[in-house]
Fold this sequence. Notes:
By secondary structure, this protein is an alpha+beta fold. It has 2 helices and 12 strands. Strands 1, 3, 6, 9, 11 and 12 form a 6-stranded antiparallel sheet that branches. Strands 2, 4, 5, 7, 8 and 10 form a 6-stranded antiparallel sheet that branches. A hairpin with a 4-residue loop joins strand 4 and strand 5. It starts with 9 loop residues before the first helix and ends with a strand. The model has no long low-confidence stretch (mean pLDDT 82). Residues 21-48 form a coiled coil.
Amino acid sequence: FVLDSGNVSEDEIRVFTKIANKIIQKKLETIEEKIDKVVEKINGEEQRYSKKLTNVAFFAQRNSSFDQKNTIQPYLINRLNDGKAFNQASGIFTVPINGNYHFYFTALKASAEISGTSIITVRLWANRNQKEKTAQMLAEGHVNSNDMHGWFPVILQATVKLQENDTVEVELLVGSIHESENLEHLITSFGGFLVSPEIV
Length: 200
């Protein structure tokens, strides 16, 4: 509204000003409440999204022996797969977000009497079969024993910085991996987890 200062007293101007200030203040409070609700909703979504992304871990096992050379290990039991980044059928972990990851693999070398060789070689790879990425060997386990009846553990570990869509898998190059087939005493396992996400 417009006041004609020639026809309105100072008291009336003060009253109008007071009313106008109250109206403006009320509108500002309403706007602030709406902004607070939007910010609260955004923060809640960010927290849920962040929690979902940073909760990445998997643990898989086999319940049978394995001797297919130059191939990756498939896994028959997937006990943990937070983040759904591990494919137990293919044995491949696909990195969901950039960050530092830790991986581990354990197995038991079959005796030379059973496998026909005293040697076993197992490798942990990143991007083994990705054409657009450079393959990187993260770790290698190698055992060579002349003990025909000996059983020897193979353990691999690696902590590495990876990018989204990188892949990690285990490859058997030589020898044979033995498994007890006892569900309460499984030996072959492959696992990993996100240590820390990349902070942008």
